[in-house]
Structure formats: structure tokens, C-alpha cells
């Protein structure tokens, strides 16, 4: 059996920390409930991050659309900063409180993956980044991880199930297993070329048996213009200076007229290495760094009870709005009593998605969310300066 919670377990509130269930029992027994406003906020990002990509909203709304609550939030894929509410809920606590564990789980991990993917894509610039990380996580999570890697900016995903969810063609080259089983790099690429759809780019993995430079030349000299790229996935104990190795291969390919052959790097790639390898690489396959990204540590905090501002220590009480200035781009978190309609230069960023029992939420296609993320990444330095 697989150790998984089913959809019914999540939607019934069974996937929760037990103290929420005990709180529910106590409040029911006392006949006490309250209308509350809660907000989802990240107080501090993981190392390297000073911004995040909000993801997991579509799954969270699968829960919230069944509950009598009012929901306001950022559109999925929105770039946000510390201490900014990305989602707020208003309703009777007992109607949604026991779902805190599930809602946080959906938002924290999805946003962590999307944020790490966005950072890798931003580092790579116009070079393609393919998500190779499905094998590093529980297979049941692969579609969720790959979807959020894609909306975060990755140009493709390797997992078939995830590609079907995203309605895109899965991306991949040749595994070492095929080369080992056929006994030769060139024979493996020739077999790939013979049996695999000709619309799939011919990319040769060249580090299984012999010196990468000579393997690259063997394949290039056989396939010539048909060869799209060579892939280096050399293990760490043999890699040495990856940049120097790739530069040597680039030199030899160019010298013989194979300037069209791209260099695709994979194996232990992360944001820092992308910045280091951009001088020689044309594309990247990123696995564990994205799929095992640190979660964004959202908290779900009560900030208002029965219309009165109240929060635990360390938190700012009262319902809030997140706004952006029309001309300067400055962002502010304001008390709801000072909402933007009273300040015409400030644009509210949180959108109403559900009011009591009626939903206005419509999930856009993943391709549209990804486009939205990439547009924001072009402006992130300017936004960081405004925040600072």
C-alpha cells in the first residue's frame, strides 16, 4: 500500500493536527464560536530568498470552496515579500479552523517549489530550465511538484503525469541505463533516433563510458546538423572543473563546424551553479534543488475576532489590505479601515475570490500563471529596491 491521505481525508478535515480537533470539541461543548479574520503571512524567507512566488491556491480553493467563508488573496503566481498577507479568510472559526494544517501544507510546499524554480529561471535568463526532480520526491507528489516548478518558470517537466496535467509535452533526453544496456553512447543515440518521434530533439548524453570530448565528437560527426545538443551529467567524483570541461567540448565542436550543437548541463545544478555555468551552458536540467525546495513558512493567524482587532504577540492585529502605489510601485500593508478606496493612488492587490457561499474564483491555465511569473521576474530588482 501507499502511505497517502486520500482526497476525502483532506476534504473531511481528517488531515489535521489533533489540537485543532480538540479545540473544535471544546468550543462545541462550550457553545462558543466567533467570527474571525485570519491571514496567511511569511515572516521570514529561507536563506537566499527575499521574495516568494505564491502558489498552491488552486488546491487550497478546493477546500475553501466547500466552506461558508469569504476569501481574498493574491492571484496564484504573484510575487510577494515578507510580512505581506497573501490570503485572508473571514468566517466562523469552527467552519474552517480545523483545515489549517491542510491549507498551510498546500500553500507552503507549492510556494517553496515555485519560488526555487523562479530563482533558477531568473538566474538562467533566456536559457531553458527543465525540471528533473520528480524522482527525488514521493511519486504521488510528482504532478504537484512539477506543476509548481513549471508555473515558477521552468520551461518543461520530465514526468509524464505532470506534463499531462499541464497539457504540455514532457521533456527528456536519454538515461545512462539505455547506454549501459546497449554498450555504447553512439549506438544508444542511433537507436533513439530510429525509434523515437522525429519531433523530439536529438540530445546525446555523453559521459557514460569515455572521455566526454571524444564522445561528443563521435556523436556530432555521425548526426551532424541533426544533433541538437549534448548533455553532461558527469558525477561529482569525476567532474572536476565543470566549466573547463564544457569549454573544452565547446571548443572542439566549434572547431569542426558544430556551432549549432548546444550544451545541456544537469546533475547537482542549483541557482548558484547556474550563475557560474552561464558562461558556457545553453540549457539546464534541475532536479533536487527545485523538487526538495525549502517550504515557505506561512502561518495562519487570527487577527480579528467579532470585528475587534486581536492577535497573539508578535503579530499585528486587525484585518489588513495589501496595496501598491500607482506610480512608484511602493507596496504597503494597511489596516482595512484605511483601504485604498480612501486613497486613490494606492491599488489593492488582494482580490475577492469567495464571499460567504458564492465563489468567483477561476483557476487560470498553468501556462498563463507561468507567463505572469516571468513578467514579474523581469521587474524583481526594481521591486526589491522599492521594498528596501
Could you name the key traits of this structure?
388 residues; alpha/beta; nicotinate phosphoribosyltransferase; TIM Barrel; 2 domains; seven-stranded antiparallel β-sheet; six-stranded parallel β-sheet
Question: What does this protein structure show overall?
Answer:
The protein has 388 residues and is of the alpha/beta class. It folds into 2 domains: 190 residues, nicotinate phosphoribosyltransferase (Alpha-Beta Barrel), CATH 3.20.140.10; 171 residues, Aldolase class I (TIM Barrel). Helix 13 links the parallel strand 10 and strand 11. The longest helix is centred in the N-terminal third of the chain and has 25 residues. The radius of gyration is 24 Å and the shape is elongated.
Please state the second-level CATH architecture of the largest domain. Answer: Alpha-Beta Barrel
Please summarize the sheet with the most strands.
7 strands, antiparallel
Helix percent reads 25-40%
- Average pLDDT: 92
| Residue windows where pLDDT falls under 50 for at least 5 positions | none
**What is the radius of gyration computed over CA atoms, rounded to a whole number of angstroms?**
24 Å
Classified in CATH, the superfamily of the largest domain is: nicotinate phosphoribosyltransferase
So how many helices? 16
> How big a fraction of the residues is strand?
15-25%
Number of domains: 2
Dominant shape: elongated
Based on helices, strands and strand pairing, what is the structural class?
alpha/beta
- The largest beta-sheet arranges its strands as 13-12-1-5-3-17-18
- Secondary structure tally: strands: 18
State the CATH class of the largest domain: Alpha Beta
Distance between the termini: 50 Å
In the CATH hierarchy, the third-tier topology of the largest domain is known as nicotinate phosphoribosyltransferase
Amino acid at each position: 500500500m501507499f502511505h497517502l491521505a486520500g482526497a476525502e481525508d483532506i476534504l473531511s478535515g481528517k488531515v489535521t493536527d489533533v489540537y485543532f480537533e480538540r479545540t473544535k470539541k471544546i468550543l462545541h461543548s462550550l457553545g462558543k464560536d466567533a467570527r474571525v479574520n485570519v491571514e496567511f503571512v511569511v515572516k521570514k524567507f529561507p536563506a537566499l530568498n527575499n521574495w516568494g512566488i505564491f502558489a498552491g491556491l488552486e488546491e487550497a480553493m478546493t477546500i475553501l470552496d466547500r466552506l461558508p467563508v469569504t476569501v481574498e488573496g493574491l492571484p496564484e503566481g504573484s510575487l510577494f515579500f515578507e510580512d505581506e498577507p497573501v490570503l485572508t479568510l473571514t468566517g466562523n472559526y469552527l467552519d474552517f479552523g480545523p483545515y489549517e494544517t491542510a491549507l498551510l501544507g498546500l500553500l507552503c510546499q507549492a510556494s517553496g517549489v515555485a519560488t526555487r524554480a523562479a530563482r533558477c529561471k531568473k538566474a538562467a535568463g533566456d536559457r531553458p530550465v527543465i525540471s528533473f526532480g520528480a524522482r527525488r520526491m514521493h511519486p504521488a507528489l510528482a504532478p504537484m511538484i512539477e506543476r509548481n516548478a513549471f508555473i515558477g518558470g521552468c520551461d518543461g517537466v520530465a514526468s509524464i503525469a505532470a506534463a499531462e496535467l499541464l497539457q504540455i509535452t514532457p521533456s527528456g533526453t536519454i538515461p545512462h541505463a539505455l547506454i549501459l544496456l546497449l554498450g555504447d553512447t553512439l549506438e544508444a543515440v542511433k537507436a533513439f533516433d530510429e525509434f523515437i518521434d522525429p519531433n523530439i530533439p536529438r540530445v546525446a548524453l555523453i559521459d557514460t563510458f569515455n572521455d566526454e570530448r571524444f564522445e561528443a565528437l563521435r556523436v556530432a560527426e555521425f548526426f551532424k546538423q541533426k544533433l541538437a545538443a549534448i548533455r553532461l551529467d558527469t558525477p561529482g567524483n569525476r567532474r572536476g572543473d565543470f566549466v573547463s570541461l564544457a569549454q573544452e567540448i565547446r571548443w572542439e565542436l566549434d572547431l569542426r563546424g558544430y556551432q549549432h550543437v548546444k550544451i545541456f548541463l544537469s546533475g547537482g545544478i542549483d541557482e548558484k551553479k547556474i550563475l557560474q555555468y552561464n558562461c558556457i551552458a545553453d540549457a539546464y536540467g534541475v532536479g533536487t534543488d527545485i523538487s526538495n525546495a525549502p517550504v515557505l513558512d506561512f502561518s495562519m493567524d487570527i487577527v480579528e475576532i467579532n470585528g475587534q482587532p486581536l492577535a497573539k504577540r508578535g503579530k499585528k492585529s486587525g484585518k489588513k489590505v495589501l496595496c501598491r502605489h500607482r506610480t512608484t510601485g511602493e507596496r504597503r500593508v494597511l489596516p482595512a479601515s484605511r483601504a485604498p478606496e480612501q486613497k486613490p493612488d494606492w491599488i489593492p492587490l488582494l482580490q475577492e475570490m469567495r464571499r460567504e457561499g458564492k465563489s468567483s474564483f477561476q483557476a487560470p491555465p498553468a501556462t498563463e500563471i507561468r507567463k505572469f511569473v516571468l513578467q514579474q521576474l523581469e521587474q524583481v530588482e526594481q521591486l526589491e529596491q522599492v521594498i528596501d
